[in-house]
Amino acid sequence: MDLYRLRAVLREPSDETEGKYLAEIPDLPGCRAWGDTSAQALESLQSVASAFIASYRDRGDPLPPKVAAAIVDASEHRGFSEVMVAV
């Protein structure tokens, strides 16, 4: 199992997000999740990002370069501004 440290962007609820928090990973185009709370959006984003990366692997497609470079040793995990994704 690989572990990735990916930068996430969290957006406040707005009319554009239909009153939900929006979390996304800019380095994985289209990888986004919504939630009623910021924690919910980020938790959902972890699952979505994991599925995105698994999909790349299943199809035999290379990961976007910034994602491929984001693989880390699990013992280095720290901080709250990143999303850790295990695939």
Give a quick rundown of the structure.
By secondary structure, this protein is α+β, with helices and mostly antiparallel strands.
SSE topology sketch:
Layout: E1 3-7, E2 9-11, E3 21-24, E4 32-35, H1 38-59, H2 65-68, E5 71-72, E6 82-86
Antiparallel strand pairs: 1-5, 1-6, 2-3, 3-4
Describe the structure.
There is one protein chain. This protein is α+β, with helices and mostly antiparallel strands and 87 residues long. The chain has two helices and six strands. It has helices spanning 38-59, 65-68, and strands spanning 3-7, 9-11, 21-24, 32-35, 71-72, 82-86. It has a three-stranded antiparallel sheet with strand order 5-1-6, with helices on one face. Strands 2-3-4 form a three-stranded antiparallel sheet. The chain is elongated. It starts with a strand and ends with a strand.
Structural class: alpha+beta
Low-confidence segments, given as residue ranges, are none
Overall number of strands? 6
Radius of gyration: 13 Å
Biggest β-sheet description? 3 strands, antiparallel
CATH architecture: 2-Layer Sandwich
Strand order of the largest sheet: 5-1-6
Taken from the alpha-carbon principal axes, the silhouette is: elongated
Content of β-strand:
25-35%
Q: How many DSSP H or I helices?
A: 2
Mean pLDDT over the residues: 89
